[in-house]
Amino acid sequence: MLQLKNITKDYKLGDEKIHALRGVSIDFRESEFVSILGQSGCGKTTLLNIIGGLDRYTEGDLIIGGKSTKEFKSSDWDTYRNHSIGFVFQSYNLIPHQTVLSNVELALTLSGVSKAERRKRAKEALEKVGLGDQLKKKPNQMSGGQMQRVAIARALVNDPDILLADEPTGALDSETSVQIMELLKEISKDKLIIMVTHNPDLAEQYSNRIIRLLDGKVVDDTNPYDRNVVELIGKKMEEKKQKKPSMSYLTALSLSLNNLMTKKGRTFMTSFAGSIGIIGIALILAISSGAQMYIKSVEEETLASYPIMIESSAMDMTSMMTSMMKDNEDGSETEDGKVHSNNIMGNMVNAMLTQLQANDLKSFKNYLENGGTDIKDYVSDIKYSYSTPLNIFRKDEDKGIIQVNPAQLFEDMGMTNAMYNSQLMSNVVSSSYDVWRELLDNDRLNAEQYKVLAGRMPEAYNEVVVMVNKNNEISDYGLYCLGLMDSDELIEAVKNALSNDGEEVNFESEKQEYTYDELMSLEFRLVINGDFYSKENGVWVDKSDDNIYMTSVVENAVPIKVVGVIKPEENSIMSSSSTSVIGYTHELTEYLVNKVNESEVVKEQIASPDTDIFTGKEFRKTDEESKKLTMDDLKAYIATLPAEQQAEIYEKLQQAQQMGMTEEQIAEAFSKQFGSSESDATYDGNLTKLGVASLDEPSRISIYPKDFESKEKIEEIINGYNEKVKSEGNENLKIEYTDVVGLMMSSVSTIIDAISVILIAFVAISLVVSSIMIGIITYISVLERTKEIGILRAMGASKRDISRVFNAETLIV
User: Fold this and answer.
1) Which option is the CATH number for 2-246: 3.30.565.10, 3.30.750.24, 3.40.50.300, 3.40.525.10?
2) pTM, whole model, 2 decimals?
3) DSSP 638-674
């Protein structure tokens, strides 16, 4: 039941109060056609707006379905208007830039009805008012009567309980007015229709109840409601669950777009003017962001190939090169007509000797991991390398076992010269010609740098991947080293070239092709240095040249499986090492070091630090500790020999005694003939020979910074470590490192940073200008669309929905 109790509505005009309604009380039936008559200014439209929830009463109460509206919130009124009220206005109030069908659908859109359902119901409503064939027309293409029919269809489409009509025939001719009234009378059979009109004839003819107002009061009611009859106008509202009305972003965009399309010229000009600033912002941000991202990617990729390297024995190459460059500068004038020498070589040697320093990497590694530094925030990876050789073998059906790492190709070609074996070149040779390379211990960086062509990346210590270049190629050098290509022809060609027969050699390796499955079927074996030795007669003997022995060792060694094929990404720097074919994880390095340290031969040498396990002799002592060989020492040594050798030596001893030689002379003679009882080897040398290393003491630390700023932070951490050990009196623990990249791109970063500051200033100015422009455009649009705002609010749109419409328009512009 819809009930008005003592409704009063006052308007303030300055200090004066205007009474629009004065204590109006009316009860309405569930379905009836009520006409409200009265002179202009008597409060008819105000009463209609209060009933429709468009205006608020000052005093009294509006009861809907037995529920007071005194505590209604704005959202409650929105729901009430959307689900229970339908409005028909004198001026139709259709949205001009929407089609007839879209105008009718709008109320259903706010109710959250699906697209198919609301289109179906809108068509049915239009057919009911006789406009089923006018769906795609715009309001300006229709007559007044047709537009009023559209307004009625829009009011009915949401199946409201109450239809409010404000002068529905005021702008129509007589014939059309009759048609509209007939339509409203038909609707009143099952709905409550409240119509405000100035035409008493139409009211008398079509209404079954007429209420007259005068000066804001009810002065006549021809058919008042009997309160004893139980009718609940709000029954339908309580029976059906009412969904809170809400306009979707898509609807808001559609309304705004259609409105803008009706003003194409102005929209284009305002959009163009406003877009100048916005486009400027976009361009500036894009250029700045793109440049920064490019520099960052280049830095990270470059630093992935050129890390900060700290060797166990380091040399300050920068100081040495600076010294050499100074030698080339003009010096003092010399005497004319004579050639003088300079001291470049001497200065270089002096620089090499003075700048060479041993780094205590054990202490530095402990500082990085446990010293409380934040170095992990600045690095992509820290790689620890060890002196333990990675001996990898592969079994070949034709050649038996093949050592694939360290590569033996140059040795097989007879190119093991002094330069190749020199300590100075060892790191260069190792990094340039190693076929096996340790991958970074950073899954994210590896994923960015490499593309997996087949299989997957290695996850366990005994898993590796085959690495091809960007063209899906493997160098013939790598294939020779892996034994996938026969190196005999290459070796023969090199030997012919090195011979003196003058024969011209033009060797070209035959092209080979391999499927991913063929490469992933490769299997290798890991052999540690200790496996090369076998214990015989109390000493460990090198059996690496014994093919039968080595075959057995390789067959029982740890298998290494290929689990994937990878290649560098398009912009990757990782392709710079063209010889690397196999990539393995740091877990394999750790496994190798632990396995070497746990081998029997290593354990025995560690247990006997004074004895050379390869000869059975004691290690040579210092000059003070050294002593001459005595007869007792000689007899003890003879006792360790086989029986046949013992008999032979004792026979020679007897002969010497028969010749009158003293024991000292005999011991000295046998010492010269059979060698000293002391070994020329050293304890540390034997451990190095066996590949012994400690995971706490790497031979090289490679630090991969994230970017150049991080690189500077890392240098600060290293310098901080040096200052720390110096202050503690341990200056010998200072670290010298090699910075390969140096200042290569630092100047570029400085320029980019300076440009970015300038661009940011332009961005700020453009943003302010664009914001002002957009604000002006939105304000003008609000002023022009006040009518549309009223229509949407009458259909239950909330204030948030209205703001969404204009936000959408701003977004489109």
Assistant:
1) 3.40.50.300
2) 0.49
3) HHTS-HHHHHHHHHHHHHHHHTT--HHHHHHHHHHHH
